[in-house]
């Protein structure tokens, strides 16, 4: 979202490169729904997204380098990203889920290599913290 990128650029050190793009399973241009506030925009409509759309550049998750810390809060695209993200160097993953089905899928995907820390609230929307075993 352009307004979030603007705030990010103001708040990071000049030596940090800010890439204005969404992470998806594919690269290219896609339509994203603008949210009812600055944190609820997303590719999936859960009720907090408006009908207004914006074209955004997307980067395929598999094109990103593996890193030690991964933080994902994409209003419904977390599973799509995790399925394509390189995690060999990752030591910790912090993410939000937006449905019970996504929560179960995420746990099944990550628990072979990561342990879940914190509690699973059992609600549709929640957060997880995973640390490499």
Radius of gyration: 15 Å
Instruction: Enumerate how many helices there are, as a single number.
Output: 3
Described by the principal axes of the CA atoms, the overall outline is: globular
| Helix content class | 10-25%
- Helix/strand-derived category reads alpha/beta
Average pLDDT, rounded to a whole number, is 90
End-to-end distance, in Å?
A: 35 Å
**What portion of residues belong to β-strands?**
25-35%
Low-confidence sequence ranges: none
Order the strands across the largest sheet as they lie in space.
4-5-7-6
Order of helices and strands: HEEEEHEHEE
Major β-sheet profile? 4 strands, mixed
The total number of structural domains is 1
Number of beta-strand segments: 7
Question: Would you kindly provide a written description of the structure presented here, covering whatever features stand out?
Answer:
Helices cover 20% and strands 33% of the residues. The longest helix has 11 residues, at 100-110. The model has no long low-confidence stretch (mean pLDDT 90). The chain contains three helices and seven strands, in the order αββββαβαββ. The chain starts with a helix and ends with a strand. It has a four-stranded mixed β-sheet with strand order 4-5-7-6. The protein has helices at 2-11, 78-82, 100-110; strands at residues 22-24, 28-35, 49-60, 69-72, 92-97, 114-117, 126-132. The protein has one domain. It is α/β, with parallel strands linked by helices.
Layout of secondary structure:
Blueprint lengths: L1 H10 L10 E3 L3 E8 L13 E12 L8 E4 L5 H5 L9 E6 L2 H11 L3 E4 L8 E7 L1
Parallel strand pairs: 1-3, 4-5
Antiparallel strand pairs: 2-3, 5-7, 6-7
């Amino acid at each position: 979202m352009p307004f979030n990128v603007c705030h990010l650029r103001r708040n990071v050190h000049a030596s940090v490169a800010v890439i204005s793009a969404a992470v998806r399973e594919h690269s290219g241009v896609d339509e994203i729904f603008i949210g009812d506030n600055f944190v609820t925009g997303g590719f999936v409509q859960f009720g907090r997204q408006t009908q207004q759309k914006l074209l955004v550049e997307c980067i395929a998750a598999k094109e990103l380098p593996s890193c030690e810390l991964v933080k994902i809060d994409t209003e419904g695209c977390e599973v799509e990203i995790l399925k394509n993200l390189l995690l060999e160097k990752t030591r910790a993953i912090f993410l939000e889920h937006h449905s019970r089905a996504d929560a179960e899928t995420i746990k099944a995907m990550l628990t072979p290599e990561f342990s879940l820390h914190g509690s699973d609230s059992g609600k549709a929307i929640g957060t997880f913290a995973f640390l490499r075993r």
